[in-house]
Amino acid sequence: MPQRFVLLGPPASGKGTQGRRLAEDLGLAYLSTGALLRSAVEEKSELGRKAEPILARGEYLPDELMNPLLGEWLARHSGGWVLDGYPRSVDQVDFLANWLEEKGQQLSAAILLEVPFDELLVRLSNRLECPECRWSGRRQDLNGAGRCPECGGVVAPRADDTPANFRSRFAEYEEHTLPVVARYEREGLLRRFDATHSPDEVAKRFLELVSQLKAHGQAA
Ligand SMILES: [Zn+2]
Description:
220 residues; alpha/beta; Rossmann fold; two-stranded antiparallel sheet; 8 helices; 51% helix; globular; binds zinc ion; cytoplasm
């Protein structure tokens, strides 16, 4: 069975960096709903126009906009995957569970990246993104050139990375995603993961965790 993971964690906990690396290491498809939505906004698609004012307020997209978008993506990726930014509400957990059941597929684990609030604020001020290829990372990953290490594009702070926006997203996280965490915990799918180390160290431990899941047959 292909491995399928949901990544959970507060904003700036490293879900993007770690999700991408994990997907690459394991040969899985990777979905960042944040990047997907920001692209939709830039392309001014119908969804993008609806999403823009909501995202600008630091709020999550309502399920009636988000679920069809996810369904579309899942339909195009029948192998294993890593989801970053979904599910963000208990209703979205249900949508995903129903989808998987209909297709005879299974979730391997929901992995919660844990980082203390104060460290999240520090990380936020260091976070950059490439508008060309959607690389995201830290200032110190740039080799001093201010260029994307993947494609050479000019990187910039993410437009939604202001402190006010962060507080709003963190409040949304506590309100909507903590119940998702509780739900996966009850279902025995949750794995807690200490994500306070350097990105390289976190990536290494992350891969170890996933290998253990596999060894125990939980991700078979
Ligand atoms: Zn790039």
